């Protein structure tokens, strides 16, 4: 329902077009341009979607200027402080935080689905051992669609919920198996009695010959990484999942598309890129050289882990991750570690540099999460896979919301064509 209208007039004084303005609960209102083409014969042009709302959603809200992030209305700071990741999963999927009984039921239901089909474990051996874990993850999560396709009717709410539960329950096993496969270690089966994060840590770091006990400070840090990465409204990978899903495709195939998008260094690959960049810088004495490269317009190098499309203020997740980072470094007595010292010094220099201040380039969540994940003993190439583990709940919650939306249409952007105008094909001897 429109609250207001905006008039669009062409210079040639032809009749003004009235476009409805729609308001949400929070954030900027939007101009509804659905009838624009029919009324004016024009498309809108917005590469990178910097001014385009592709859908309406009730899941996550970001105010990038104020540094606010809400899941279902709850500030991320409170969720990170008072909840664990499974509670946040429940919240994102169901819209409300669970009470004790609802949480118990959710944990029981999830634990029933933690194992992956034994046949799925054989997919891994089709990959080279040195394949990037994200390449393996795209393939294996996509393969889930082969196991759960005919049994699922995406128009049924219950079926969609079950597919979400399956994804959330199986992702820790699938991600840990990517790691085990790359190291040649045996896969570790999940343990139902363990918490979500403890179970994942055991599958990552444990082996069948010994018991594994997760360090509670490290488990809490990983839980926080998962909470902070769980959803982030219509980012590139979520938009990819929605676009893929808009055709009615299998949800696991759509999530695999999201994983592919997340892999890029401008998105989820940034946490891995941060650590690679720190290794490349190598020493505190070379920070100035790299900061100068980042500022040089003729050099494509960017400081990884700095800047954000939406946050033009401190990313609230980065603030929380910074605190977690220090807790982990304290616990492990790692403050003297070469890369950690380098990261802290880089952060200090960049935050004081006029270039970064003017362009509002603050450290983002991935600057710190990379450091924390390294301290947790997670290999650098697994960082983005951990991000995918966390974001799976956001992707599937957004997919579910989209399928249930009565306004759902297949996503089909248009274009400004700048190629050659129509011409005739000449025979080969005449070209
Ligand atoms: N280092 C140096 N300069 C930068 C950086 C950076 N990290 N980020 C942006 N700039 C400059 C950029 O050169 C441009 O300068 P100018 O106005 O002179 O042309 C200006 O800042 C605006 O940059 P932009 O590319 O137009 O901004 P964007 O909103 O399209 O890009 C970004 C956002 C995250 C892709 C970008 O900041 C970047 O590449 N950062 C490094 C990669 C990174 O850390 N990505 C993780 C994002 S957080 C995780 C997630 O949510 O996925």
Short synopsis of the structure:
The protein has 431 residues and is mainly alpha-helical. The protein contains 17 helices and six strands. The protein is globular and about 75 Å long.
Could you explain how this protein is built, in words?
The protein has 431 residues and is mostly helical. Helix content is 49%, strand content 5%. The protein has helices at residues 36-40, 76-82, 85-94, 100-111, 133-147, 157-183, 196-205, 216-229, 236-245, 251-262, 270-281, 287-295, 316-332, 338-352, 354-358, 365-375, 383-404; strands at residues 4-8, 17-22, 30-31, 60-63, 68-71, 74-75. The strands form two sheets. Strands 1-2-3 form a three-stranded antiparallel beta sheet. β5 and β6 (74-75) form a beta hairpin. α6 runs parallel beside α7 and α8 packs antiparallel against α16. The radius of gyration is 24 Å and the shape is globular. The mean pLDDT is 93. The chain binds carboxymethyl coenzyme *A.
How do the strands and helices of this protein lay out in sequence?
Elements: E1 4-8, E2 17-22, E3 30-31, H1 36-40, E4 60-63, E5 68-71, E6 74-75, H2 76-82, H3 85-94, H4 100-111, H5 133-147, H6 157-183, H7 196-205, H8 216-229, H9 236-245, H10 251-262, H11 270-281, H12 287-295, H13 316-332, H14 338-352, H15 354-358, H16 365-375, H17 383-404
Antiparallel strand pairs: 1-2, 2-3, 4-5, 5-6
The structure holds carboxymethyl coenzyme *A (CMC).
Carboxymethyl coenzyme *A (CMC) is lined by residues 232, 235, 266-268, 270, 294, 302-309, 359, 361, 364, 366.
């Amino acid at each position: 329902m429109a609250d207001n209208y905006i008039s669009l007039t062409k210079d040639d004084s032809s009749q003004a077009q009235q476009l409805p303005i729609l308001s949400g609960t929070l954030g900027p209102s939007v101009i509804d341009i659905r009838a624009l083409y029919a009324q004016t014969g024009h498309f809108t042009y917005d590469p990178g979607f910097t001014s385009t709302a592709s859908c309406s959603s009730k899941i996550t809200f970001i105010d990038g200027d104020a540094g606010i992030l809400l899941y279902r209305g709850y500030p991320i700071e409170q969720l990170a402080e008072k909840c664990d990741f499974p509670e946040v999963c429940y919240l994102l999927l169901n819209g409300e935080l669970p009470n004790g009984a609802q949480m118990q039921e959710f944990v029981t239901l999830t634990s029933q689905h933690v194992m992956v089909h034994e046949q799925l474990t054989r997919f891994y051996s089709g990959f080279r051992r040195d394949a990037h874990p994200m390449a393996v993850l795209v393939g294996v999560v996509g393969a889930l669609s082969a196991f759960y396709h005919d049994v699922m009717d995406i128009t049924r709410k219950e079926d969609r919920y079950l597919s979400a539960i399956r994804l959330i329950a199986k992702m820790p096993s699938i991600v840990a198996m990517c790691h085990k496969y790359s190291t040649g270690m045996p896969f570790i089966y999940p343990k139902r009695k363990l918490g979500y994060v403890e179970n994942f840590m055991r599958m990552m770091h444990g082996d069948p010959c010994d018991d594994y006990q997760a360090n509670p400070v490290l488990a809490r840090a990983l839980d926080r990484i998962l909470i902070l990465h769980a959803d982030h409204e219509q980012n590139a990978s979520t938009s990819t999942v929605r676009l893929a899903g808009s055709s009615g495709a299998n949800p696991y195939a759509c999530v695999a598309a999201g994983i592919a998008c997340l892999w890029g260094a401008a998105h989820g690959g940034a946490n891995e890129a941060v650590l690679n960049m720190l290794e490349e810088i190598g020493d505190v004495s070379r920070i100035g050289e790299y900061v100068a490269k980042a500022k040089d317009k003729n050099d494509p190098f960017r400081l990884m882990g700095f800047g954000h499309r939406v946050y033009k203020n401190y990313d609230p997740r980065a603030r929380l991750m910074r605190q977690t980072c220090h807790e982990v470094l304290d616990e492990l007595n790692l403050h003297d570690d070469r890369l950690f010292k380098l990261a802290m010094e880089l952060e200090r220099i960049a935050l004081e540099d006029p270039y970064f201040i003017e362009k509002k380039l603050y450290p983002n969540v991935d600057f710190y999460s990379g450091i924390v994940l390294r301290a947790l003993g997670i290999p650098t190439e697994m960082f983005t896979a951990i991000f995918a583990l966390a974001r799976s709940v956001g992707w599937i919650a957004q997919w579910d919301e989209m399928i249930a939306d009565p306004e759902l249409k297949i996503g089909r952007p248009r274009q400004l064509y700048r190629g050659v105008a129509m011409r005739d094909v000449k025979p080969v001897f005449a070209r």
